[in-house]
């Protein structure tokens, strides 16, 4: 008889069959924030060096620095440095539209702050992705 998922999971991703910790577990807030800080810092460095720190250019650079590596390797630069990767809930390649939509929503900030029990922000829920530890 199949096991019924708990009404209140003991850890994020439990009802998805993901482990509590280690590889393939859901990335926790500390790593997520550090990865975003790395990506933002890189965008700031490029904006200062080449664009006289224009706020609109900075935001565009941040979004672009999310999209390109997500399409190519399923992780932003910050994700790669911290051992994280983005994956579709169903598995398989992300494709192109998911990283674009996810990154645009992440650039708005607010969708990333509204999270569910699996610590997935609205930007991940909208495109059915999940950020995992490698």
TrEMBL record:
Residues spanning the membrane: 33-51, 57-84
InterPro entries from the UniProt entry: Pra-immunoreactive, UCP021697
Keywords for this protein: Membrane, Transmembrane, Transmembrane helix
Superkingdom of the organism of origin: Bacteria
Name recorded for this polypeptide: RDD family protein
Record organism: Microcella alkalica
């Amino acid at each position: 008889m199949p096991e019924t998922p708990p009404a209140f999971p003991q850890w994020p991703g439990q009802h998805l069959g993901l482990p509590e910790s280690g590889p393939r577990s859901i990335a926790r807030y500390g790593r997520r924030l550090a990865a975003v800080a790395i990506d933002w810092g890189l965008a700031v460095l490029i904006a200062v060096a080449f664009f006289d720190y224009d706020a609109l250019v900075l935001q565009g650079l941040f979004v672009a620095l999310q999209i390109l590596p997500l399409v190519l390797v399923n992780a932003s630069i910050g994700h790669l440095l911290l051992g994280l990767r983005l994956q579709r809930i169903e598995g398989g390649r992300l494709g192109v539209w998911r990283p674009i939509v996810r990154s645009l929503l992440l650039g708005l900030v607010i969708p990333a702050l509204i999270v569910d029990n699996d610590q997935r922000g609205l930007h991940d829920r909208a495109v059915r992705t999940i950020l995992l530890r490698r």
